[in-house]
Specification:
With 256 residues, the protein is of the alpha/beta class. It contains eight helices and nine strands. It has a seven-stranded mixed β-sheet, with helices on both faces. The longest helix is centred in the C-terminal third of the chain and has 38 residues. GO terms for molecular function: acyltransferase activity.
């Protein structure tokens, strides 16, 4: 009931304000379980995709959104539950992965749609990064559910980092044909099979989105960018300190 109300209010508002265009809706199964595997450009991806679908789709979200104390925390938790997101504790990498897999299997066993971002995190620069082989492939092989590739387009341009007000523009959603991995049934613990399944899905997402593909994990790229920013900040601080020292030395000489 809450999901339906949120879909009408939040989903309806998003559709009215941003008018997202959609291609390939016919590829979403009318009933039964399916995995929607999407690229991840923006926080809003998990809202725009459900807004254009008739069926409920469940994503996973970090547990912090659900257990923050206070009135604001309770409202945030209610909102995320209302838009069909499940909490996953990410305090331990392996534990988080297993929790996500378990949650996905439970959703699919109920005959519902499960949404997942194979990259594991938002793209730091709009490019498509290597998919992580654990969650998506294991859930697909454990349940036999078809994988529907999805490409979110231009959602990162609506509210770039540092911009308070969102830009009113039309993002896009392109949905591909379902992929069948039944040929790998029972092989969900074979790491080579998991990699092959993940790479096939990422290739289809790349074709749909038109993004440049980067053969590394987005998390690794984010670390590189953070380290580069830290090094640049340190270099600027060192340069400023040298300039201050030189200025002080000049002042001292002028005073003698």
């Amino acid at each position: 009931m809450l999901y339906g109300a949120m879909k009408v209010t939040v989903g309806g508002s998003l559709k009215l304000a941003f008018r997202p265009w959609v291609e390939g809706l016919e590829h979403i199964p009318a009933d039964g379980p399916a995995i929607l595997a999407s690229n991840h450009l923006s926080f809003s991806d998990s809202f725009f995709l459900p807004a254009v679908l008739d069926r409920k789709v469940t994503f996973i979200a970090k547990a912090e959104y659900f257990n923050t104390p206070g009135v604001k925390g309770r409202l945030t938790a209610a909102f995320f539950k209302g838009v069909g997101q499940l909490p996953v504790d990410r305090s331990g990498a392996r534990g988080a992965g297993e929790a996500a897999i378990k949650s996905g299997i439970e959703v699919l066993e109920r005959g519902e749609l499960f949404g997942i971002y194979p990259e594991g995190t938002r793209s730091p620069d709009g490019r498509l990064y290597r998919g992580k082989p654990g969650g998506l492939a294991r859930v697909a092989l454990a349940t036999g559910a078809p994988v529907v590739p999805v490409a979110m387009i231009d959602t990162e341009k609506i509210q770039p980092p540092g911009q308070v007000m969102p830009k009113l523009m039309r993002p896009g959603i392109r949905i591909g044909k379902p992929l069948d991995f039944s040929r790998y049934q029972g092989m969900e613990h074979d790491r080579f099979v998991l990699r092959a399944v993940t790479d096939e899905v990422m290739y289809e997402i790349m074709k749909l989105s038109g993004q440049e593909y980067v053969d590394m994990y987005a998390t690794a790229m984010k670390r590189q960018l953070a380290e580069a920013a830290k090094a640049e900040k340190a270099a600027k601080a060192e340069k400023a300190a040298k300039n201050d020292k030189a200025a002080k030395a000049g002042t001292d000489r002028a005073g003698t």
